[in-house]
Amino acid sequence: MTSFLQAGAYLLFGILSLFMIATATSAGFAIHGVIILIACILAVVTTVGRLQPSPNGGWIVPDTANGGYHDGVIKAGVIATVFWGVVGLLVGVVIAAQLTFPTLGWGIEYLSFGRLRPVHTSAVIFAFGGNALLATSFWVVQRTCRAQLWAPGLAWFVFWGYQLFIVLAASGYVLGITQSKEYAEPEWYVDLWLTIVWVAYLAVYVGTIVKRREPHIYVANWFYLAFIITIAMLHVVNNLAVPVGFGPKSYGVWAGVQDALTQWWYGHNAVGFFLTAGFLGMMYYFVPKQAGKPVYSYRLSIVHFWSLIFLYIWAGPHHLHYTALPDWAQFLGMTFSIMLWMPSWGGMINGLMTLEGAWDKIRTDPIIRMQVAALAFYGMSTFEGPMMSIRSVNGLSHYTDWTIGHVHSGALGWVGMISFSSMYFLAPRVFGVARLYSLRMINWHFWMAMGGITLYTASMWVAGIMQGLMWREFNAEGYLVYSFAEVTAAMHPYYLIRLAGGVIYLGGALMMVWNIWMTAKGRVRDEAPLDAGTPHNPHTDRPLVPVGAAQPAE
């Protein structure tokens, strides 16, 4: 019965899509109607095709649980994460090249920087990061609750519904359909669809926790749940809008400085809860599992959670220093941003100290190496962010490429590395194979990623500070010393370095695609272990260390 209801709902959305096509006032709106119609047809065919006759009469969907858990949707999530990661990084390289060589758009409106830039940000944040969060949260909640997913059919709806949102959003940007809000560019009908999908996600997650067989709710679930609930609130409030007829255009209900404050309340907390809280849930599960050790301090993890959740929501106004926003609101955002440094570093220390007694694994386990690098970048970014929120520092850094360097040290270093390591952890388990295709390729991926991040962030830090200093340079008569064109020309060498860093980072991601693809096929690469050539103790098979060095625990 549930499957027939799902099919009926998909048919209803299909009828709405036909209405979109018939009444479209723009080509982009009609194209979105066609995309939704195709998705609805595929959904109906797939839903009905899964039905099998029941021995007692009627129709049922066979239970596809693997080893007691529903991992099919997680496998799909791993594939989608890797796919969208490459797409997002590739578009990022393209727009970095356009900033370096402005004629690369060839005058084609669909390939202009203004249209491709939100494709890049949405692809890496919501497509790559969002699918990583979906896959890992469904894995973690089942294992830590010792319960199957509640309503696995609804979990599949969440997955495919989220892919439809990504396609609608990205194609809309290319077609010029956008409400021009940072990290919230999709128009009203795409926002409504995401709201439906997100409510279903919350229902699946909470339902699984409610039916748990483990009395304790592990802290990773706290972070995932906070991320799901808070993002829902941020999304709804920031995107309140009135459509102009039945078309792609709408006007937000907020205006003026209230709109700016609401947008950056959303924008900063999209970073705080989507890119921080959700991925901390990932960290609190996968770091202890890969290290084979419990969390260093469970009490610290609880303090970390509540202090982070309370403080983060107030920090948004620091994006609006020296604007029409009242000074008290600007100082409020700055104060809470500075206080955020303490819980953030508490979480970083908790993750790093989980490896106490297992530090030797960094040399032989490239997945742990990625996790440690991710925690290091998390600590660095959460120190740099509060520092940049100070008004005097912000007067130099804001609107410059220093901010771009800061954002990408967190995105490529923290989000990218913890996501890569989690996908490497999940891949052999969801594909049902003994091990990954190649550990040495993970090692190469790690070093390519580190090289790419270093080139990218260092070039943007230098370029941003140079920008800020050149913009504020006045001569004795009170005129600006440098024109905008001169500042832009001075940026060119640093943009070349950034482009090189992006290409190297993308190369590491492509290596990951090959590694996971071969893992899915059950292949194992014939290669020497990472500690090959290191003398081992013949009695314990552990690597020998120099005399006087700290001996690894047995």
Observed structural traits:
554 residues; mainly alpha; 16 helices; two-stranded antiparallel ribbon; disordered C terminus; 4 strands
Span between termini: 56 Å
The helix fraction, in percent, is 55-70%
Low-confidence stretches: 544-554
Secondary structural class: mainly alpha
- Report the principal-axis shape: globular
Give a quick account of the main beta sheet: strands, pairing sense, barrel closure: 2 strands, antiparallel
How much is the average pLDDT?
90
Lateral arrangement of strands in the main beta sheet = 1-2
Number of helices: 16
If you compute it from the alpha carbons, what radius of gyration comes out, rounded to the nearest whole angstrom?
25 Å
Q: How many runs of DSSP E, i.e. beta strands?
A: 4
Order of helices and strands: HHEEHHHHHEEHHHHHHHHH
- Tell me the fraction of residues in β-strands, as a range: under 5%
Description of the structure:
- The chain has helices at 2-23, 27-49, 72-100, 113-145, 152-175, 188-210, 219-238, 256-291, 298-312, 327-353, 361-364, 366-389, 391-397, 401-430, 439-471, 484-520, and strands at residues 52-53, 59-60, 241-243, 250-252.
- With 554 residues, it is an all-alpha fold.
- The strands form 2 sheets. It has a two-stranded antiparallel sheet. A two-stranded antiparallel sheet has the order 3-4.
- The protein has 16 helices and 4 strands.
